[in-house]
Amino acid sequence: MGVLQRSYQIFLESWGVLVKDKELLLFPVLSGIFSIIAFAGMVAGGLATGLFAALAGQGPESFPRWVGGVYAFVWYFVTFLIATSFNVAVLACARIRFDGGDPTTADGFAAIRKHFGAIALWALISATVGILLDMVKERFAVVGSILKGILGAAWSIATFFVVPVMIFEGAGLGASTKRSVQLVKKSWGEALGVTAGVGLFTFLLAIPGLLLPIVLAVTLGGTAALIGLGVAVLYWIALGVVSSALSGIFRAALYLYATKGETPSGYSGALVQGAFRTA
Length: 279
Prior knowledge:
Layout: H1 2-20, H2 26-49, H3 51-55, H4 65-98, H5 105-114, H6 116-158, H7 162-169, H8 173-185, H9 190-219, H10 222-260, H11 269-273
Helix pairs in contact: 1-9, 1-10, 2-4, 2-10, 4-5, 4-6, 4-7, 4-10, 6-7, 6-8, 7-8, 9-10
């Protein structure tokens, strides 16, 4: 219950930071738009070349099995590249705010340009890990799915601070990974748990959107339900954008406290300090 309460408070305090810099919402929006474009391009390419049909055993041409793996790797790389780039923008702008500045979208784009090499390298590593986890799942069936979940979670936790370390400390990939593990060990584990609170309360806020078309269908009929569904989808997209921005802001706050021992502006000291060891 204590973690849940802190999660709720962190959601509110992160929202307070976001309100001061509403332009940060642009980055998750752009991330979503570019991801949709990339997905459409990948699907179109797979259909045009006959790759999807061939992999399903229905096409006239035969592609080697490894081609499908390469295609999946490219998809992983592109999506990680897009997501990491705009996450870097949010982190950089949040850092400026915590340091007493007033960030602009130009600062976010400047951070992407400055660290694009590191971003691309991290996307490459993340894509490789994603493919390896998929191979584990495919190789060991049901057990593989469990292993993928466990290994994926361990990887996510160990590398939680990799991107902040890379952009704020200018460290290389190896040093950033080692540093991330050190910072995670410094936590009681709640630093990651309360971060999930942003997702938890986003989920709770998403429930009314799920209920809206159902209520309209029962009370007003099918047409109203379709309109309600459209409104719900827009509502969910907006929640996703806000949740992404809040998660980036709080990750920057955790990183700054973990490395400097100072509570970032906009957060209560006891709240952030409670996620870390005091000795």
